[in-house]
Specification:
By secondary structure, this protein is α/β, with parallel strands linked by helices. The chain is 34% helix and 18% strand. The chain has a 7-stranded mixed sheet, with helices on both faces. It has a two-stranded antiparallel sheet with strand order 1-8. The chain binds S-adenosylmethionine (SAM).
Length: 279
């Protein structure tokens, strides 16, 4: 039997042994190069005194890297039961440092399984990636249960997360990420880095929470105002926000925003001030 640098079998052998043919419906594009998964794990910084939450470990390429890089514990939530035997082998090898939870990450409550400090590191399934990110960014109280997020997205989504006002990519994700965290793209990966190769390129985004939001505002209201404003991003705000209140023009003027302005030109501070008008 051949072994990889971490002492476990190469991922191609693991996939063949457990017959883990990728399913498109589960967003399965696997990373099989442990040098690459090691590099992604290191973007999360020192893991030795942290619990790491991983969503979608699949055959375990990133999971193995997180453990090899010294994560105190890894809690990995996987929806595809076919992956569980492969993940159990990793769990045995790493002597209890890996806990695998079989289920849907959208209905999983992480709090009961994790001890702070917590970092989230994942090559996310593309179909639930933004939904999970928005949830992690918009809890009603801050700071959240996590210290940092190191996440793989389609490049276009990654660019939206880090975009600045006035740019084409600026929108809901940029505002929610910039309001109470710092986000940057730390790695770009071509489609060939994955098996099977997706149609688009990907990027890893590293997001660090701020201790306090940059501006006071209610997360749920901000989320609603921003989603409404960018739902019709080419329209003037007086039209795009009309559904929120009949006197939307007065509310815009009350915080010094021209009703003819467009969403993509407002700063995060302006969105927070505007949200306070709707709270
Ligand atoms: N981490 C592995 C890697 O990097 O090779 C696999 C990444 S693959 C892009 C996404 C993984 O998420 C798959 O293993 C898929 O089965 C899993 N997944 C898809 N939907 C899920 C959900 N709702 N909850 C938990 N895991 C999910």
């Amino acid at each position: 039997m051949t072994v990889s640098t971490d002492g476990l079998p190469p991922l191609r052998e693991v996939i063949a042994k457990h017959e883990l043919r990728a399913h498109k419906s589960l967003g399965q594009n696997f990373l099989l190069d442990l040098n690459l998964t090691g590099k992604i794990a290191r973007q999360a910084g020192d893991l030795s005194n942290c619990d790491v939450l991983e969503i979608g470990p699949g055959p375990g390429g990133l999971t193995r890297a997180l453990l090899a890089e010294g994560a105190r514990h890894v809690v990995a939530v996987e929806r595809d039961d076919r992956c569980l035997p492969a993940l159990a082998e990793i769990s045995d090898y790493y002597d209890g440092r890996l806990k695998v939870i079989s289920g849907d990450a959208l209905v999983f409550n992480p709090a009961q399984h994790l001890t702070r400090p917590v970092k989230i590191v994942a090559n996310l399934p593309y179909n639930i990636g933004t939904e999970l990110l928005v949830r992690w960014l918009t809890p009603s109280t801050w700071p959240p249960f996590w210290d940092s997020l190191t996440l793989m997205f389609q490049r276009e989504v990654a660019q939206r997360i880090v975009a600045k006002p006035g740019s084409k990519a600026y929108g809901r994700l940029s505002i929610l990420a910039g309001w109470r965290s710092e986000a940057k793209i730390v790695m770009d990966l071509p489609p060939q880095a994955f098996t099977p190769a997706p149609k688009v390129s990907s990027s890893v985004v590293h997001i660090t929470k701020l201790d306090k939001p940059k501006f006071d505002c209610n997360a749920k209201v901000l989320e609603r105002v921003v989603a409404t404003a960018f739902g019709q991003r080419r329209k003037m705000l007086r039209a795009s926000l009309k559904s929120l209140a009949p006197d939307v023009e007065d509310r815009l003027r009350a915080v010094g925003i021209e009703p003819t302005e467009r969403a993509e030109r407002l700063t995060i501070q302006q969105f927070c001030e505007l949200s306070n008008q709707f709270d």
